[in-house]
Structure formats: structure tokens, C-alpha cells
Amino acid sequence: MNRDTGRVRELNLYRRYFDLVAAGVKTVEVRVRYPHLADLAAGDVIRFRVKGTEETCEVTVERVTEYPDFASLLDGEGPAGVNPAATRERQLADLRAIYPPEKEALGALAIEIKRRSAVAARVVGEA
Known about the structure:
Layout: E1 8-13, H1 15-22, E2 28-32, E3 45-50, E4 56-67, H2 70-77, H3 79-82, H4 88-98, H5 101-104, E5 108-115, H6 118-126
Parallel strand pairs: 1-3
Antiparallel strand pairs: 2-5, 3-4, 4-5
């Protein structure tokens, strides 16, 4: 589905993941299933920001899939879309270093994303 809902979310990303999104090679963002992300849906726009900077990158949400934990997510999605530069085992360790067990227990979201063009990003920003 490729509809634009007009909803824009701002989320922080570590620099290493931001660069993969900006390059268009990271196509699945992983997040804990926090309540504030419960209504995230295809067509929404996410504006990723490198924490502490003004550097941003916009993506369109193509799909959101829930998983019980990070291991299930990586098995279901495959590691290449999450981080093509790291093995599944490395990604699982990295995710668990970012999110403690009580956060992972909330569940995991696989958010399929597509990099927006600079023109599309400006139009959304002006709306």
C-alpha cells in the first residue's frame, strides 16, 4: 500500500542506522511496540533525526508488522533489510544492547520503509 496519510512522526536514530536509511539500503526499521507507535500505519511519514542534530531524513511507511520479540522479527523479516552490513547475531546483540529485556517484552515492530525524495519531503513539510 502506498497512500500518504499526511501524518508525520519524528523519531531519533543513531548515526550508523541513519546513514543506512539515508542511503536507501535500510528498508526495515525496528522499534519496540510502545503505545505511542500503536497507530503507525502504511502511508505515514517518519522523519528520522540524528539525536542532537538538525540532520533529518524522511521515509514513507510501507508496512508495519508486529512480532513477539527481536529474534522472531529478524527471522521473519530477514536481517538484510534491517542492517545489510551486519549478521543476524550482531543485529540481535545490538538491539538487545539498545533495548533492555523489559522493553523487548512489549513486543517488536518491523516497519518497512521507503526513502522519500527531497521534493516529496519538502511538499510534506510545507503542508
